[in-house]
Design brief:
The complex is a heterodimer of chains A (about 220) and B (about 190). By secondary structure, chain A is mainly alpha-helical. Chain A has ten helices and two strands, in the order ααααααααββαα. Chain B has one domain. Chain B contains nine helices and no strands. Classes of the chains: A mainly alpha (about 220), B mainly alpha (about 190).
């Protein structure tokens, strides 16, 4: 009898683990916030002019999303349904303030280059969206998985876009001052168009078309 | 006076909030399918920007700076903007029902619109006075409306054009925006 109960508990744990992974993978690929859901586009265009900015922004979004998801799902039973949105916004704004102060204190150059976009994480629809759709209805563990999946999905999208923009726009790739490679002719005559605002729109438009094209081919 | 005019032109055209600052992209792509909606949305955003920039500028210059608590600006601004939008919505609903019907559904969306919070944060970061903040907010709102109207005009035509299947919808809209942004980059030489 005891053994049976133990086994049942073990089964539950395993299913919890598999659900954890399912939520994680879901955010990463199936409902990638940028390419599939097209949420939180403002920072995607604004900070992808270099890979450093993209990494900083990705880390910031993961931090805020993780903290707000944990806190909101932990207190989800005590938040009155009527005023839940203002409560979510204040929680998110608090974590964004913490993040902004930490960046300012420890990595001032990144804080300066991200500028107002760091503060604007607060109105990023991804974070409020996950609070409303997921964290306010699920347990803390699943909310962590959801936050990590969506956060990494967002970061990967940022990295892909900023990689293309930095390589085409400057002809070389440097991560935090470390020069990884440079393309011989392109680095002497870089296509600066790609690190300027119109280049951001063009690259994202083409990437979206590419994802749609792959979807069309798979569908047939 | 000259200074105010410069601020207006810079925020409206040279550093257009949509095409060079990338703020308010969700309504830019979401509401730009029809010209009439674009005009309503542009008006609603301009109105909210105008009101909230007055409020946040007063808060920043007379409350946050004297008490040395500038780090509170994100929390305060978002609360102020959210409650102002609610109040504006109530007032419009009571006083002008026709205007409410055309603006109504767009107003709640504006609360989480990064263009409004963005312009107030830019005003504080630039250290603008109250008057300068108002001019910059009006410039931002008018610039937003201008670009939204241009974009919706193009997209109405684009619907009739034959585009490849994978380009339909958002991808072609982004590429159109890229060309528009390229055109607006030409204004950089003005300043």
């Amino acid at each position: 009898m005891e053994e049976k109960e133990n086994k049942k508990e073990y089964d539950n744990k395993q299913s919890a683990g598999s659900v954890f992974w399912k939520e994680f993978i879901k955010g990463l690929v199936i409902s990638n916030p940028v390419f599939i859901l097209t949420l939180g586009l403002c920072p995607v265009l604004a900070v992808t002019n270099s890979i450093d900015n993209a990494l900083g922004m990705g880390a910031g979004v993961i931090f805020v999303l993780l903290c707000s998801n944990i806190l909101i799902s932990a207190i989800r039973r005590t938040i009155p349904a009527l005023i839940r949105i203002p409560v979510f916004i204040v929680i998110i704004a608090t974590f964004v303030t913490i993040l902004s102060l930490v960046f300012e204190a420890y990595i001032p150059p990144l804080h300066e280059s991200l500028g107002i976009y760091l503060s604007l994480i607060v109105v990023n629809c991804i974070i409020l969206g996950r609070a409303e759709v997921f964290a306010s209805k699920n347990s803390v563990l699943f909310s962590i998985a959801d936050a990590l999946g969506i956060g990494f999905g967002f970061t990967i999208a940022l990295i892909i876009i900023s990689f293309l923009r930095e390589v085409l726009g400057t002809g070389r790739l440097a991560v935090f001052g470390l020069n990884l490679f440079s393309i011989p002719v392109l680095s002497e005559h870089p296509m600066t168009f790609f690190i300027s605002p119109p280049g951001a729109f063009l690259i994202i438009g083409l990437l979206m078309a590419l994802f749609k094209w792959i979807g069309v081919i798979k569908g047939e | 006076m000259n200074n105010l005019f410069t601020i207006f032109i810079v925020t409206a055209i040279v550093n257009n909030i949509v095409l060079s600052k990338f703020l308010g992209l969700c309504p830019f792509f979401g509401v730009s399918k029809k010209l009439s909606n674009a005009v309503s949305m542009g008006m609603a955003v301009t109105l909210v920007m105008f009101i909230s920039s007055i409020a946040t500028s007063v808060i920043y210059n007379y409350l946050l700076v004297p008490f040395n608590v500038e780090f509170m600006q994100i929390v305060l601004y978002i609360l102020v903007i959210a409650s102002l939008v609610q109040i504006v919505e109530l007032i419009i609903k009571r006083t002008n029902i026709a205007l409410y019907n055309s603006l109504g559904i767009f107003l709640p969306l504006i609360t989480t619109n990064c263009a409004v919070l963005g312009i107030t944060l830019i005003n504080s970061a630039e250290g603008y006075t109250l008057l300068e903040s108002i001019v910059s907010a009006l410039g931002g709102g008018i610039g937003f409306t201008l670009v939204l109207i241009i974009m919706s005009g193009i997209r109405e035509k684009l619907d009739l054009a034959q585009t490849p299947v994978s380009m339909k919808g958002l991808p072609i809209a982004f590429i159109t925006a890229a060309l528009l942004a390229l055109a607006f980059m030409g204004f950089n030489g003005m300043m």
